[in-house]
Design a protein that fits this description.
By secondary structure, this protein is an alpha/beta fold. It folds into two domains: about 140 residues, 3-Layer(aba) Sandwich (Carbamate kinase), CATH 3.40.1160.10; about 90 residues, Acetylglutamate kinase-like (Carbamate kinase, 3-Layer(aba) Sandwich). The chain has ten helices and 14 strands. The strands form four sheets. The protein has an eight-stranded mixed β-sheet, with helices on both faces. A two-stranded antiparallel sheet has the order 3-4. Helix 4 crosses helix 5. The longest helix has 25 residues. It is globular and about 55 Å long. The mean pLDDT is about 90.
Length: about 280
């Protein structure tokens, strides 16, 4: 029975694989899926599979918990303003060390172990992400001023899976900590990706935050303002949904918010009729 179900899933997935072949898919990876080794392995296997079937995968990652843990060991307190980490010059150096070093290379190593041709990059490499300060209050939290996709496209053309850590720089040599959702949306838009998937710690956008069965399966960007007004989109979900809207307005066809706590949520989202999270699309 299990083998039959596997065969049926492959048959169901065929038209979706065909749709995504040679197209660019951007994945923003973070949250609980990064904390569990079991979930991390599951995500890296799924991305390897997608690259094997001809989908051009770009992985964009954060690493907030790893940054907080490293700062704690160094005796530096973490401080957040409006959900964003206050980043002074010392913290920015720690962010670069943890994201572009430890976290990035760990993901690349795991992908390569599963057979993917992964390569680690950061927003600093090739002047990929040029930043200025989001605000003086937040310190060196980056506002993206320019995005250069040449290095990413070169990697994809040669069959590599780019793994991008969300740090950027400016002409004065300053390092900036960039929100991973913001970076992923900007990269997906600049690449005119077929889809962007934001992996989170919720099933998607819920009509009732207390009821995980109240998932909204499809949202048009034109409805986002009214959903914010009704309180359905609130708190930390507002900037995340605004990233979805920005990506679509920059040319991404579909954006998904999906549950990173669920094994194979990416495959379920892309390669099945039902999907697993909330899909955002343009139009009314």
């Amino acid at each position: 029975m299990i083998k039959q179900q596997q065969a049926e899933f492959l048959l169901e997935a065929m038209p979706y694989i065909r749709k995504y072949q040679d197209k660019i898919l951007v994945i923003k990876y973070g949250g609980s899926a990064m904390l569990s080794e079991e979930l991390k392995e599951s995500v890296m296997r799924d991305l390897t599979l997608l690259s094997f079937v001809g989908i051009k995968v770009v992985l964009v990652h954060g690493g907030g918990p790893e940054i907080s843990e490293t700062l704690k060991r160094m005796g530096i307190a973490s401080r957040f303003i409006g959900g964003l980490r206050y980043t002074d010059e010392e913290t920015a150096e720690v962010v670069r060390m943890v994201l572009a070093g430890k976290v990035n290379k760990s993901l690349v190593h795991m992908l390569c172990a599963f057979g993917a041709k992964a390569v680690g990059l950061s927003g600093i490499d090739g002047n990929m992400i040029s930043c200025s300060k989001e605000s003086e209050e937040l310190g060196f939290v980056g506002k993206i001023e320019h995005l250069n996709t040449e290095l990413i496209l070169n990697c994809l053309e040669k069959g590599y899976l780019p793994v991008i850590s969300t740090v950027g720089g400016d002409d004065q040599g300053n390092i900036y900590n960039i929100n991973a959702d913001t970076a992923a949306a900007a990269i997906a838009g600049a690449l005119k990706a077929e889809s962007l998937i934001l992996m989170t710690d919720t099933p998607g956008l819920l009509a009732n935050k207390e009821d995980e069965t109240s998932l909204l399966k499809k949202v048009y960007v034109s409805d986002i303002s009214s959903l914010i007004g009704e309180g359905i989109i609130s708190g930390g979900m507002i900037p995340k949904v605004n990233c979805c809207k920005d990506a679509i307005r920059k040319g991404v066809n579909r954006v998904f918010i999906t549950d990173g706590r669920v094994k194979h949520s990416i495959l379920l989202e892309l390669l099945s009729d039902e999907g697993s999270g909330t899909m955002f699309v343009k139009g009314d």
